[in-house]
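re: ur question from yesterday

yeah so i grabbed the chain u mentioned. its 450 aa long if i counted rite. heres the sequnce exactly as i have it in my notes:
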Amino acid sequence: MTEDIERNEHSRRQRTPQETARPATVAAVLSPFDSHTHGNDKRESDAKLEEAVGLARAIDLDVRLKASAPLRRMTPATLIGKGVVERMKEAVEEHGIGLVVVDDKLTPVQQRNLEKAWNAKVIDRTGLILEIFGARAQTHEGRLQVELAALDYQRGRLVRSWTHLERQRGGFGFLGGPGESQIEIDRRLIGERIVKIKRDLESVRKTRAVNRSGRKKARLPTVALVGYTNAGKSTLFNRLSGASVMAKDLLFATLDPTMRSIKLPSGKPCVISDTVGFVSDLPTHLVAAFRATLEEVVEADLIVHVRDVAHPDSERQRADVEEVLRALGAIEEGGATPMIEALNKIDELPPETRRVLQTRASTGAERERQFPISALDGEGVDQLLVAIEDFLNRSAQAREVSVPLSDGATLAWLYRHGEVRSRHDDDEVAHLTVAMDPAAVAQFERRQAR
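ran it thru and got these structure tokens back, copy pasting raw so excuse formatting
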């Protein structure tokens, strides 16, 4: 086990009266890492461990112990080796740990065996993320999505959760036939609840589709903010929109999607959406459960990938986000979907590193795709907005149109649905050069034909 299990200073901080009244669960975090992949790269294993500790703290766990453990080969019964299990057992007993978070995927059997070995509750990475999602979801839709993911996860673990109810019991026909075991009843009830939630989420999906259709008819382009959790999406969203979405230095601070209309530099409106943050090794069924929400990303006219460039693993986080976006079908190999990067938190970089980043972004090959910003103090945000508008206008077609000055409704329509690049008026007619996207052009032609 690398880095002998250490006592966390966080656990010794002064507590508020509220925290004293309701003590947090005393926890340990164990982060196995593939020694074949990472070798002796201490920085990568430490970053993986710190992220796991951050996830645990996101639901107010009092993390007293944290440790990394090389995983040279997977042990079927416990995932980790016998020596690690024994050392963790001693540490768990010494520090009175009631919960151990294993930052990996555990089978139900492995989870049960570790709980027996350590005499403590054990959850894996998926279970921890589900706990965070359950604590963060505020809207009806968000709670439905969390419940769907949790039920799907729980259904495969009934053999572990309900071992004390495996006895057979009689039934009355309406609650399960004679001889049906409790575990079968619970599995059936969970299945029925999953079907109902999926129906409700399908209704949500249809409502979102109607809303998107309405925005397209009104020619309101949509920009989706995506990124690794805690990259600063909500802080940027608040700065752009004047909203007050919760923005804290906390993993998964945002779970429920939020949309606002903002003004681009030209004065044209667009809709911007703040989405749930991604994280490495995000379980497939969690992505599937949030597909209704993440459709806003798939259907967006432009994706803005908000990156924390001050984070030591910024490049790895970038790859993790793009992997999820590809799984959703939001981006394709070769970059078919427009996406730019907001390189956030430059205010946290050393001055020299910051200058190099800004020079590279303004003169390098990525100068039209990467924009250094500080969502916290606003530096670079104006340039980002100009870039957003430029990307949204790239599909626009410039055309010359002439409209009678008396037709104020058509003139107003052109200003709302296109970019008026030039205009000169004679006695009775306004002559304009207007850039419009293909849908607006077709709509204008239909309007003129009436």
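noticed a couple things. Residues 2-22, 160-179 have pLDDT under 50 and may be disordered. also The longest strand covers residues 62-71.
anyway ttyl
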